[in-house]
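Look over both lines:
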Amino acid sequence: MEGDIAKAEKEGVDIIFSPSPLEMYPDGFQSSVKIKEITRYLCGKSRSGHFEGVTTVVAKLFNIIKPHFALFGQKDFQQLAVIGRMVKDLNMDIQIIDVPTVREPDGLAMSSRNKYLNEEERKSALSLKEGIDIAVKMVQDGEINSQVIISALKKLILSYSFTSIEYINICDPLTLEDTDIIKEKNLLAMAVKVGDTRLIDNCLLRAGDRDK
């Protein structure tokens, strides 16, 4: 919390809203917001109840603060999609703005979890961005079979030390259902553990971007 406050002050933030858990979930609290379908895939497979917690607390924050817009990062693409679905389905009067993934100079997607990586693990963590670059190049070269691309990425990432793959999926960016063939636009999403640190990363693969 102290680190977040310091970053916010540096950017000129005037007010931080930080209610306690008891204020957000008082005795007798029993309501929740649940998104049914797109939470079944990707991170939702192994994190039961996670997105229900996310949508519930975000809905409460929206109701309390009544913001005109809210920003969510593309790095957690599924969370962005879930929040967008909730806002649309429940006719919430708020604009969701998606923010492109910001990367460290070495290519690793910025995350508070990166601090848990030691020097050797960080080298292995770069395999996620390397995998993304390879997938983009494969599509540019004409590869449209999702399993061929996924197999190449699995081989690459597992060639690094300390890595274990939770999932690598190529899916529809709206429904998050797996797709066998790369068409106009598909989401490549992955979750990989490097040592004890769980990292996620993604990119959009566009078949139309193939080199001529």
Notes: The two ends are 50 Å apart (CA to CA). DSSP finds seven helices and five strands in the chain.
